[in-house]
Amino acid sequence: MRDYVDAVFHFKRDFTKLQLFEFSDVMTRSEFFFLGDIIRAQQTGQDLYTIGSLAEKSNISPAAISRTVKHLTQKGWLQRVSKDSDRRTVYLKVTDQGLKEWTQIKDKSAAYMADYLAEIKPEDLETFLRVGYQFIDRVNQNKKSL
C-alpha cells in the first residue's frame, strides 16, 4: 500500500505543476478558480457565497479570501451584496464582466485540454475520472466524520 500512497503523492505533485495553458495578464490562476467556484454556485441556484463559506470550501484563510475579493471587486468582476432579510451578511456575486472574462479563459483552457485528452482513449479517461472521484469522495467522507 505504501507504494500506492507514494505514487498518489507524486501524481498529485506532478499534476498540480502542469501548466495546461497560459493565463493571461488579465486574471491569475487563483482568481480563475475562485471565480469558477462562485459562478458554478450561481448557475446551480445555490445560495451566494460568503467570505467564510469560500474560506471553508477552499481551505484558505478568510484574510486571504478577503484580499482576493478586494482585488476582484476593484477589477469589477465581483460584487458584494446583501439580502434584504439579512443585511449583516455579505454575499459574493460575479458580475457580467467577471463572467465574460472567466468564460474567455475557460474556453481557451478547454481547447487546450481537449487537444491533450484527444490522445487518450475514452474508456481510459472514464476510468481515470471515476477512480479520481471515488478517491475525492472517500477523503471528503472522512473529513466529515472527524
Describe what this molecule looks like in 3D.
It holds the Pfam family MarR. It is a single chain. This protein has 146 residues and is mainly alpha-helical. The chain has a single domain, classed as Arc Repressor Mutant, subunit A (Orthogonal Bundle), CATH 1.10.10. The protein is built from six helices and two strands; from the N terminus they run H-H-H-H-E-E-H-H. Strands 1-2 form a two-stranded antiparallel ribbon. The longest helix has 24 residues. It starts with a helix and ends with a helix. The mean pLDDT is 85.
Short description:
With 146 residues, the chain is mainly α.
Topology at a glance:
Elements lengths: L1 H16 L11 H15 L7 H8 L3 H13 L3 E6 L2 E9 L1 H22 L4 H24 L1
Antiparallel strand pairs: 1-2
Helix pairs in contact: 2-5, 3-4
Number of strands: 2
N-to-C terminal Cα separation, in Å? 23 Å
CATH homology-level superfamily: Winged helix-like DNA-binding domain superfamily/Winged helix DNA-binding domain
What composes the largest sheet?
A: 2 strands, antiparallel
- Look at the structure and give the CATH class: Mainly Alpha
Spatial order of strands in the largest sheet: 1-2
Descriptive keywords:
DNA-binding transcription factor activity, WH_DNA-bd_sf, Transcriptional regulator, MarR family, two-stranded antiparallel ribbon, about 150 residues, 6 helices, single chain, mainly alpha, MarR/SlyA-like, Arc Repressor Mutant, subunit A
